[in-house]
Design brief:
Blueprint lengths: L21 H9 L8 H6 L2 H9 L7 H14 L8 H5 L6 H12 L8 H11 L11 H10 L5 H15 L17 H13 L1
Bound molecules: iron/sulfur cluster (SF4).
The site of iron/sulfur cluster has 14 residues, from helix 7 and helix 10.
């Protein structure tokens, strides 16, 4: 990834899982002005001007982290966003979710994405108990990895993010409209109880 590549683009969201849907994330990130389209420019900016640029995207709380990250990429990685998970997670403000998203969406790597929404869907599909630490859980990582379409990781992860946010909602999931209902433990139970009520 070249230095001029947009440092914040696509469905990569801000570090930790938020309550916002991935649709909202894409909308807000796409609102980042074009004037921060260069990592070099970002690294050279004062935090106050980065604040002005990120405010419209609702990312104001990440200003200092974004600035530190840009400096690290400029100084440690010759202005190129690293591809390796370890190198990515060593950047300021980058955790497993963002590292996986960068690897998948920017580099096409077959990485699974663990966030609140995908974990919720995986917990329902596989009948697993989700906890606060599930984002770092090997069980959930392996579960999502087993679903991943390794030939089309970008498409798969975008579809999963949409499914988790829009259909497999936290409350009242739309199991009757879900394309994976027959593969899902929760969905099969929901279908059975619906049929019993009829
Ligand atoms: S069937 Fe229901 S619980 Fe299962 S993934 Fe689809 S929406 Fe979620």
């Amino acid at each position: 990834m070249e230095e001029d590549a947009r440092p914040v683009s696509g469905p990569v969201r801000g570090g930790s899982s938020s309550q916002a849907s991935c649709h909202a994330d894409r909308t807000s990130v796409s609102a980042v002005p074009e004037s921060i389209s260069s990592l070099k420019q970002l690294a050279a900016s004062r935090p106050r001007s980065i604040n002005d640029l990120l405010r419209s995207a609702g990312l104001r709380w990440r200003v200092r982290l974004v600035h530190r990250m840009a400096l690290q990429i400029r100084d440690t990685h010759h202005g190129r966003i690293p591809r390796g998970r370890r190198e990515l997670e060593a950047l300021a403000g980058v955790g497993p979710y963002v590292a996986g998203a960068v690897r998948c969406f920017a580099y096409g790597e077959a990485d699974e994405l663990l966030d609140t929404n995908t974990i919720r869907s995986a917990s329902r599909v596989f009948g697993l108990q989700a906890t606060d630490s599930s984002r770092r859980s090997r069980v959930f990582r392996d579960a999502l990895r087993s679903l991943l379409d390794r030939g089309h990781p970008r498409e798969f992860n975008l579809a999963l993010l949409d499914l988790a946010a829009l259909i497999c909602r936290p409350r009242s999931p739309l199991c009757a409209s879900c394309p994976v209902c027959t593969e899902c433990q929760y969905g099969r139970r929901a279908t059975l109880s619906r049929e019993l009520r009829q």
